[in-house]
Predict the structure.
Amino acid sequence: MKKYFIILTGIVFSLNIFANDDLKTFTDSAFNYYLEGDYDNALRIYSNLYEQDYSSADLYYNMGNCYYKNGDIANAVYFYEKAHILKPGDKDIDHNLKIATSNIRNKVEKIPEVFYVTWYNNFISIMSSDSWAVISIVFFVTSLLLVILFLFSRKIIIRKTGFILGIIFFITSIMSFIFAKSQAHLINNNTYAIVFEPSMVKSSPSEDSMNLFEINEGLKVEVIDSINIWINVRLADGKEGWVPGKNIKRL
C-alpha cells in the first residue's frame, strides 16, 4: 500500500509540474503578444484560461490591460475590479483601474464616507484575506509560545516580557482574524456589477416606467434587488433605479 501511495503521489506531483509548465507557456506567450502590440492574440490566450475557470489577480489584471489597449473600457474596468478584489492594495491594479475609470462618460461622485470607515476599509485592503489569515495564525502560535515561556521560565523579567508580549500578540492575532473575515466577506458577498451597455435607468421594473437618469458603460453599480429581467441598482451617489439585467455584468 505504501508503495502504491508513493507512486500515486509521484504521478500527481508530475502532473502538477506539467500543468504549471503549460500555464507558464501560455502566459509567457500571451505576454509576448502583448509586448508586440498584438492585444487580440494576447487576450485570446488569457480568455482561454479564464473560460477554464482559472482565477488569479494577475490573469484579471492582464486581461484588463488587453481590453484597455483595445478601447473596451467596460471590460477593462470589469477585470481590473476583479483583480482588485483578489489583490487589494496592489498599486499597479489600482493605478490602471483609476486610469480606466477616468474614461467613463458622466462619472458619478461617491458620497463621502465617515473618516473612520474610509480608514478601516483602506487599512484592511492593504492585504488579501489569505494574507491576513496567515498573519493571524502566526501571531496566535507566537502568543502560545510566549505563554509557555511565561509559565515555565524562572526569571521574573522573562516571565513579565512573555506575559506582556503574549497579550499583544494574541490581540493582534484576533484583529488580523477580523480583518481576514472582513475581506472574505467582501469577496463572497460581492453585490457590485459593471455597466456594459449605456442604459436609461427606470423608476420601476417596466419599459413603460419613467426615465430617471442615464448610466454609461464602465460604471460600477451596486445590485440591491431583481425582478425577472430587471435589476435594481444603486449608484455611488445614492441614486437608485431599474435597468435590464442584460446591460450589466456582476463582478
About this structure: The chain has three domains: 2-101, 115-188, 192-250. Residues 1-19 have pLDDT under 50 and may be disordered.
